[in-house]
Design a protein that fits this description.
The chain is of the alpha/beta class and 276 residues long. 28% of the residues lie in helices and 30% in strands. It folds into two domains: 77 residues, Alpha-Beta Plaits; 156 residues, Vaccinia Virus protein VP39 (Rossmann fold). α4 runs parallel beside α5. It is globular, with a radius of gyration of 19 Å.
């Protein structure tokens, strides 16, 4: 999508649990009209993206759906939405992270965020990439990885590019999974990486020697209670404030993990733990 492409974004809120599933029906997506570009759920909120002006279809759809509340309509360009993401290649974990033009030296990882977030410049993503580079250099190299909250797929795809043979990524966002699948194609990793649109909780026991979880604390704790960390040999957790990460790490130590690396900024902490 070009930086100058105009977007209209409907910010919706679901009034009850049932309303959160309204867009699981493809027919409802069709009713939003041909300008529909993507959809992202975040808790009770949905962001519905249209290329340019969407016409009357969204208003007509919402008039028939009292269980959805229109909070705001945003008008901006794609470049403004992504805040310059992908404008310049950079190096992380020994990989050149570059936009869809594929510029930069090998080895490269091409990331087109589409309408989702996650080009790789966020401090938690950079820290996860650093820990991932360490994880794949430690013998024995992990043969499988599970990325819960995969976003645009950058961590899952980086794991595959760095030599992990089988990688699974999971995200609840329609936009994120669509972007991740496109990025998988751009990098030619279809035979090594799979992506699923689902709640992370449903994949808590999915195989993966290495677990990647760049998620907020409440979801990390829920996954912990479900046993998502118990049978892993290596874990990389992020998306946490330092105090949150310290509390989560205390619980991971009780499962037998030992600290292999820790990356802190003023706001975030990323922890890499291993079982011997």
């Amino acid at each position: 999508m070009r930086p100058e492409q105009p977007l209209t974004i409907f910010e919706l809120r679901a009034r009850d649990e049932a309303a959160r599933g309204v867009f699981e029906d493809p027919a409802n997506l069709d009713r939003l009209g041909p300008a529909l570009a993507g959809l992202h759920w975040e808790a009770d909120f949905a962001f519905v993206f249209f290329k340019g002006e969407p016409g009357p279809a969204p208003a007509e759809f919402l008039a028939a759906r009292p269980d959805l509340t229109l909070n705001h309509i945003h008008h901006l360009t794609y470049g403004q939405w992504q805040d310059g993401a992908g404008a310049s290649p950079f190096v992380a974990a020994g990989l050149t992270i570059t936009g869809p033009d594929g510029a930069g030296p090998e080895p490269r990882l091409i990331i087109d965020p589409g309408l989702a977030f996650g080009f790789g410049g966020h401090p938690t993503t950079l820290a996860c990439l650093g820990c991932l580079a360490l994880a794949v250099q430690t013998k024995p190299r992990p043969l499988s990885a599970l990325d819960l909250g995969a976003g645009t797929g950058i961590l899952a795809l980086a794991a595959a590019r760095l030599g992990v043979p089988r990688v699974t990524g999971v995200d609840y966002s329609h936009l994120a999974v669509a972007s991740a699948l496109n990025n998988r194609r751009l990098n030619g990793l279809e035979d090594r990486v799979e992506f699923h649109r689902a709640p992370a909780q449903l994949f808590h026991d999915h195989p993966g020697e290495l677990l990647l979880a760049n998620l907020h604390l409440s979801l990390q704790e829920e996954l912990l209670e479900l046993g998502a960390f118990r049978r892993r040999r290596r874990v990389i957790v992020s998306g946490l404030l330092p105090s949150e990460g310290e509390g989560l790490w205390d619980r991971l130590k009780q499962l037998g993990f030992k600290l292999a690396d820790q990356i802190r900024t003023d706001r975030w902490i990323t922890i890499y733990g291993v079982k011997e």
